[in-house]
Amino acid sequence: MTTPIRYELIKTDKQTGARLGVVHTPHGSFETPTFMPVGTLATVKTMSPEDLESMGANIILSNTYHLWLRPGENIIKEAGGLHKFMNWDGAILTDSGGFQVFSLSDMRKITEEGVHFRNHLNGEKLFLSPEKAMQIQNDLGSDIMMAFDECPPYPATHEYMKQSVERTSRWAERCLAAHARPDVQGLFGIIQGGEYEDLRKQSAQDLISLDLPGYAVGGLSVGEPKDVMNRVLEYTTPLMPSNKPRYLMGVGSPDSLIDGAIRGIDMFDCVLPTRIARNGTCMTSSGRLVVRNAKYARDFGPIDENCDCHVCRNYTRAYIRHLIKCNETFGFRLTTYHNLYFLLKLMEQVRQAIREDRLGDFKEEFFEQYGLNKPDAKNF
């Protein structure tokens, strides 16, 4: 299959097997492993495209389900596609809408054809199928689009998961058949199977037979313990083609990014850094910092003394706390910028460690400094 998405392996870390690579897209190339900021409604909340560019983001994620409902894919198509609509020159990955639809568990009905559900905004009846998910993403014009998959709950029985995996495989075939622009948009498949090794293997084999330009690991970061996620990655990533990008969906805590990279993952996305930023929670080199706490009211130091982002160079904890406490948008902008910068810089450090064959050592140093080795360590 000719594809606009190409993966180039640069080197493998001798300590861990992590991959340093480059993904080439119609809207530029980006080095991996990388983190993708999430711009659900064609914007990363409170960030401008210029902000994202200045922090080193080369690819962002946008949400098919939400853009279908508002403003509608037809308006975005009329604007010349998502890149022009939001004035973003870098690469864009769109999810299929499946995760959002399956999150509406009390409002949906799954059939072989697709999913019947109600619009979460106004209760209107809607239907999303593999074909519809492809049509919306073709109209949005993203560089990477995701196959429509069933997102089973955690935990689920082996029997339920087997049926779900088989349906996801059939839906992936329908997605490929319905994909109208394979020359300019790359379609990635999503490997499901929960924590069952035999089902992950079955899902991977089914999807790899379609020869798609990239593959994702889905169904993780849904409430399972970290050791389960790592174990699933240990037996799933070796099943994925080494000449194509590997994407772990919905993961954004620093420890999981490092653990994922060590297990051969190239791409990550998560709303975590932006969502916690709006609560006044910041990621720092020595762990999380809740800047809205009273103890920072007279703290005139930066969020993170080891960070060189423009927020840490120019604004104090006391000022940012004041803004967050007063619900000032500028406060959310500052914490969001810092958190995204922190994760993008972390991935840069991961890539450098792979270049130097020392990712295992880097993990130990980072976990120690971040406080992840403590018995009561928080996830972020």
From TrEMBL:
Cofactor stoichiometry and binding remark: Binds 1 zinc ion per subunit.
UniProt pathway: tRNA modification; tRNA-queuosine biosynthesis
Source superkingdom: Bacteria
Domain tRNA-guanine(15) transglycosylase-like: 16-370
Positions annotated to bind Zn(2+): 307, 309, 312, 338
A biological-process GO annotation: tRNA queuosine(34) biosynthetic process
Alphabetic keyword roster: Glycosyltransferase, Metal-binding, Queuosine biosynthesis, Transferase, tRNA processing, Zinc
Residues that, per the record, bind substrate: 95-99, 149, 192, 219
Residues covered by region (RNA binding): 250-256, 274-278
GO CC annotations on file: cytosol
Cofactor(s) essential for the protein: Zn(2+)
InterPro entries: ArchSynthase1/Queuine_TRR, TGT, TGT-like_sf, tRNA_ribo_trans-like
Catalytic class of the enzyme: transferase
GO MF term list: metal ion binding; tRNA-guanosine(34) queuine transglycosylase activity
EC number from the UniProt entry: 2.4.2.29
Role noted for this protein: Catalyzes the base-exchange of a guanine (G) residue with the queuine precursor 7-aminomethyl-7-deazaguanine (PreQ1) at position 34 (anticodon wobble position) in tRNAs with GU(N) anticodons (tRNA-Asp, -Asn, -His and -Tyr). Catalysis occurs through a double-displacement mechanism. The nucleophile active site attacks the C1' of nucleotide 34 to detach the guanine base from the RNA, forming a covalent enzyme-RNA intermediate. The proton acceptor active site deprotonates the incoming PreQ1, allowing a nucleophilic attack on the C1' of the ribose to form the product.
UniProt-listed NCBIfam families: Q_tRNA_tgt, tgt_general
HAMAP family named among the record's database cross-references: Q_tRNA_Tgt
Name of the protein described by the UniProt record: Queuine tRNA-ribosyltransferase
Organism field: Ornithinibacillus hominis
